[in-house]
Design goal:
single chain; 193 residues; nine-stranded mixed beta sheet; 26% helix
Length: 193
């Protein structure tokens, strides 16, 4: 379990904070324990070197924002959510990538965490739109974005190269004006990190 670091935003059960290199040991251990949950949809880093390469791009690339979703009670990392390909200008959009770890699956922690990332993305990062491209058979991922208020916008054949093949994806998106307002009492924002 990682040492508890301050959250950017927190809700009743989880908080989000930026991914750091210090998350490596816990992240890779949880990714290794979660292979059955992730396959064939997701391949998060499971070794120290793979994590350093992954974290380095998320941390250093200004078009990305990487977060870990942590349980408030004890600080255990429940999953991760990245905003990739952030485009400013007239678009103000980013593409989500995310995954729960097996010990947290089915407990509502990623739903709460995604809600916190949406709050942070729309209010603090000033984004207007977030997209999630999901393989049609990934029912858990589709259910997660549907619960968060995303709408299905279309279908992209052969969209991403995953596990040795080009995979079809459904396109889901949410805009800042689609998001229901979150009661201030249920979310606490922090400026430190």
């Amino acid at each position: 379990m990682s040492e508890h670091r301050p959250f950017l935003v927190e809700g009743p059960s989880v908080g989000i904070r930026p991914l750091t290199l210090a998350d490596g040991a816990e992240f890779t251990a949880r990714a290794s324990q979660s292979q059955e949950l992730h396959r064939p949809w997701l391949f998060p880093p499971r070794t120290h070197d793979a994590f350093r390469a992954y974290a380095g791009t998320v941390i250093e690339d200004p078009t990305k924002a990487g977060f870990v979703v942590c349980e408030r009670d004890g600080g255990a990392v429940a999953g991760f959510i990245n905003i990739n390909n952030i485009v400013r200008g007239g678009f103000h959009c980013g593409a989500l990538g995310y995954g729960a770890f097996a010990h947290a699956a089915g407990r509502g922690l990623m739903s709460e965490g995604l809600g916190l990332v949406l709050t942070y993305a729309f209010e603090e990062l000033g984004l207007h739109r977030l997209e999630a491209n999901i393989q049609p058979g990934n029912a858990a991922s589709i259910a997660l974005v549907r619960r968060a208020g995303f709408r299905r916008e279309g279908f992209s054949p052969d969209f991403l190269f995953i596990d040795g093949a080009w995979r079809d994806h459904e396109r889901w998106a949410i805009t800042a004006d689609m998001r229901p307002s979150v009661p201030r009492s249920s979310v606490r924002r922090h400026r430190q990190c």
